[in-house]
Automatic annotation (TrEMBL):
Residues 1-24, 350-374 are annotated as: Disordered. It comes from the Eukaryota. The chain crosses the membrane at residues 95-123, 129-150, 257-283, 289-312. It comes from Orbilia oligospora. This is Integral membrane protein. The lineage of its organism: Eukaryota, Fungi, Dikarya, Ascomycota, Pezizomycotina.
Length: 374
């Protein structure tokens, strides 16, 4: 009978110290740090601003940079700080300060109106009179925007009519002539005309629009094309959300949403004018509360709907990757300053510690020499 001879397994040789395996997390961190470029990728968080290089940085400093950008992206505290800095920059502008004060006044008087109306604040027989005073103040505040912007909105509607007309005419002519579909049917082809307006160049720079000849040729005649460009530039100068042509960060704004926003803002002004006439034309003793509430509700609804439509159009036309890249570049620029400051402090601290160590060494040598002399 032959016995099975079991051969003992070979003992695993432990890896040497200099060949210790690198943890996967550290490997990903190192590869991520070494591949930081000016392009947005999924392998790292940091995106270098154009013209900035970190070739002389150590591997540890690059990993520190990428980690700090990750912290800036995900930290709620950092998001709040960025929002607060943006708000302070906005308030420093005259328009931003006006809008902030205007919104604060509407909020405070609106809150007071509600508290008096539901009886949480009661002043006896003067209750209705105080409510009427607050109501008049609120209507006056609303009239600043609703009534004050009404003439400008009429002009904007005039420009919008021409913009919409030439958009629909272009689509109709292209279908009639069996031309290929536009790459973006909201971005009509343009021609290089000599401008008769001195401010058009600045408007174009503000919009960052490219007026180079495109592969798609215009179907409008020269006069129609000139009118379209004139009215689109005028409207874009009045409303920053409207972009007649593709920019570096956005596509052209949809013309159908443009029509919707313009009509909603026109109705907002009409309701506000009606509200002012009802409030100031009828005594509060005889004025139906339901009439005022209905007009006010319709006015606010139109204004909110216009804002939502603008937001939808902005999200539809936004080039998310480019905007995200620019956002990351801004965070990376901030993180570079943070890392440089941190590295400088560490070097200063190391230099101070080295200097202190040298001083201690000198003191020890002096003590030894004194003891020997004794």
């Amino acid at each position: 009978m032959v016995e099975d001879v079991q051969v003992p397994p070979e003992e695993e040789v432990p890896p040497e110290d200099n060949e210790a395996p690198i943890p996967p997390a550290l490997q990903r961190q190192r590869s991520r740090a070494l591949s930081i470029t000016s392009n947005l990728t999924d392998s790292h968080y940091a995106v270098l601003p154009h013209g900035v290089t970190i070739d002389d940085w150590t591997e540890e400093e690059r990993a520190m940079l990428d980690d700090h950008v990750r912290h800036l992206l995900h930290s709620k505290r950092e998001k709040f700080k960025r929002g607060w800095r943006g708000f302070k920059q906005y308030v420093k502008r005259p328009l931003g300060l006006f809008v902030t004060i205007y919104a604060t006044l509407i909020t405070l008087f609106g809150l007071a109106w509600v508290l008096f109306l539901i009886g949480w604040i009661y002043v006896g027989e003067k209750q209705l009179y105080v409510i009427n005073v607050i109501d008049n103040v609120l209507v006056a505040l609303f009239a600043i925007v609703g009534d004050g912007l009404a003439p400008f909105r009429v002009v904007d509607t005039y420009h919008m009519i021409f913009i919409a007309r030439y958009h629909f005419l272009t689509w109709k002519l292209r279908r009639k002539r069996k031309l290929p579909e536009l790459q973006d049917h909201n971005d009509l082809p343009t021609r290089q005309f000599v401008s008769m307006e001195v401010d058009r160049a600045s408007v174009i720079r503000d919009l960052e629009a490219s007026w180079e000849e495109r592969d798609e040729s215009p179907v409008l005649n020269e006069k129609q094309q000139e009118r379209f460009e004139h009215h689109s530039m005028k409207f874009a100068k009045s409303h920053t959300y409207y972009r007649p042509h593709e920019t570096r960060t956005h596509f052209a704004f949809p013309v159908k949403l443009l029509i919707t926003v313009t009509i909603l803002l026109d109705f907002h002004s009409m309701f506000q004018i009606t509200l002012g006439g009802v409030t100031w034309g009828i005594s509060y003793h005889h004025r139906p509360a339901a009439l005022t509430a209905t007009i006010l509700s319709c006015s606010i609804a139109c204004n909110i709907a216009a804002g939502i439509t603008i937001s939808i159009g902005d999200r539809m036309t936004r080039k998310k990757r480019i905007i995200e890249q620019e956002f990351r570049q801004g965070l990376t620029e901030e993180a570079i300053g943070h890392v440089k400051k941190k590295v400088r402090k560490e070097k200063e601290k190391a230099a101070m510690e080295e200097l202190a160590a040298d001083e201690k060494e000198k003191e020890k040598e002096k003590d030894k020499s004194r003891s020997r002399s004794k």
